[in-house]
Amino acid sequence: MKIKLLVTIGIIAVLASCAATPPVREVSLPSQSLNEPLKSGVIQLVIFNDSNILMYGIDNSGKINIHHNGKGVGQLNIGQYVILSVAEGYHTINLLHKDIANFGSTHQLKVSESPTYLKIYAKVTSNGAEIVPKPENFEEKFKPAY
């Protein structure tokens, strides 16, 4: 009986530790509409979480915290996106997901056209980030986080 209780408590502790605390939002977000017209010189950066739902969805370890140029943006669950208004040029994206430990990564990217789609995803001991063409059926697969 005591062993079952200890195992249950251990499993609950591991699953609870997999939920990362969202960062404080330090940037103001523009409209989260994908069809919003933009001002001249402003690029729409669409960051979306495309982590593997089977590997990272069950225990919520697929939630990824995002910092853009050192400022907190928020947290994306699998299947969510956030839109940032950015200037053309180089940007630093820091990502963090929490599994059994905290797994962070830093990514340098060059943004030059609007909209730019940045696919982020949890990896076993890190995170991935890739600029990609707009995925097919994006509006059906991904929902705004905010």
Question: What do these coordinates show?
Answer:
- This protein is an alpha+beta fold and 146 residues long.
- The protein has one domain (2-144).
- Helices cover 16% and strands 41% of the residues.
- It is built from three helices and nine strands.
- A five-stranded mixed beta sheet has the order 8-7-1-4-9. A four-stranded antiparallel beta sheet has the order 3-2-5-6, with no helix packed on it.
- Strand 7 and strand 8 (127-132) form a beta hairpin.
- The radius of gyration is 17 Å and the shape is globular.
- The relative contact order is 0.22.
- The mean pLDDT is 87.
Search tags:
3 helices, alpha+beta, 4-stranded antiparallel β-sheet, 41% strand, 5-stranded mixed β-sheet, 146 residues
Distance between the termini: 45 Å
Q: Count the helices. How many?
A: 3
Q: Structural class, judged by helices and strands?
A: alpha+beta
Number of domains: 1
Could you list the spans in which at least 5 consecutive residues all have pLDDT below 50?
A: none
